[in-house]
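check this one:
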Amino acid sequence: MIKKILLIRNDNIGDLICSTPAIEALKKRYPEAKIDILVNSYNLCAIQGNPFIHRIWSYTKTKHVKGIVAKIKAFFHKGWILYRLKKERYDCSVILRIAHSKHAELFSKAAGAPMRIGVSHPQRKDSLTHPLSIQESLHEVMVCFECLRPLGVVYGDERTLWMIEEAQKRRFLEHQNKIILHISSRLEANRYPLESFRELIALLAPKECIITASLEDKAGALDLASAPNAEFLQTQSITELAALISVGSLFITLDGGALHMGPALGIPTLAIMGKTDPRRWAPWGEETWAITKNSPQEISEIIRAHYVL
């Protein structure tokens, strides 16, 4: 009987958000089981407060900290977690990834569960008891369900989930029902021209737009905020950005981890996709739209067809 399960999702925020429907389905399949998850300090915010998780193990990757002292602390804390996982006596561990990861498998191996599920190494150089091979064109949400298939878990129309505390939402209530427009993307190929954003904001008038951006795009965001129906708001963390999105009426974003935040918060989301395959990474949910780098006019027409300005 499976009473204790360890999930491993130690990569990016969007990936972890896409795991949440499968986590809910897993809890439905094993309602009495304790489901723990191993994440990293970067994507931790995406799973905090999740009602289907019993315990969160979080470590800091050395590449995410600066300075030799901080790196040493991160290294030893990771070692402590590896040691503690062995003491937990898990019945099963599952690596939620589409490809094999030696770093993720390290945690699975340390836990020493009799049932270890995950995508196999190309040459089967792994310690998995239930090696998987997953179709590369599947959406990441369905990839996670494939990872849980050996446990009898199937998709039952679960949606992505991000929990926000009411106190966090209250900080942004003055921006309630406005359009939240996130203009940043980590990859250059996924960016959208500033002039096109400017035209789109004008086409969305008189609806007010709140512009958000990473620090490196702050100058461009301030420039866009000169429009009469636009305002720039600099959030200080990913959690703050999530709280802001949660009070909006529509979230418009570029291709990246942020595009999964809107649907997980229950907010209609339009993602302007770049080079990423929408079949794999489009926002998941009913009120979501994934489009390529259409013209501002085409984007505004799509919005007006589905959303009342």
Remarks:
- The chain is about 35% helix and 15% strand.
- The chain has two domains: 4-151, 166-306.
- The chain has a mean pLDDT of 94.
- Residues 68-87 form the longest helix (20 residues).
